[in-house]
Amino acid sequence: MARQPIDQALQKRHPISRQAIWQAIRSKPEGFFYTDLERATRINRATIRSYVEALRAGGYVDAEPAAKFAPVLFRLVRDVGHEAPRLRPDGAPVTQGASREQMWRTMKIALQFTAADLAVQASVPGSVVSDVDAKDYCKRLAAAGYLAVISKGRAAGRNGTVPSVYRFVRSRDTGPLPPMVQRLKSVFDPNLNQVVWQEEPRA
To answer: How far apart are CA 51 and CA 44, in angstroms?
Structure first.
């Protein structure tokens, strides 16, 4: 069965619900109830409960003892910053897609870079970015307008090739979530919840 494109799959759920819940939690340092998060985010209780339980399992939030049938008060005990932790239900970190997140953060800091530079700078222990992945991601984001090509790569005779040099386009900083490259040769931006680039079909 063909894999469903990311943008179509995400139409059935809010792509940044986890981020909205995390921001609401960070705004309640004194503690929060599920109802607080529902009012702040307008996200359904089941989705909120699932993410809060993952945060609790991962040691990010703790629960105050409550009387029988009383609502549980939660507190944030491990604030790791703006970006919502990506967790499995058991609280373990989600590693799939981590390299794209690392590259997205790094390219917004670097002044200009080649794909090889980006791969080195974005790699962290336990999550190494390959040159091939960095090259493909840079190519797709340049086509979608997130990167400007400072100098285009070219053949250099016996010396091999000169790589393309890129610069991040500041006006295209749409948010913390990395644009996704889909199998159908398009780029989906979860911050905007839309496909921002589609390769033209060949005649």
So the answer is: 11
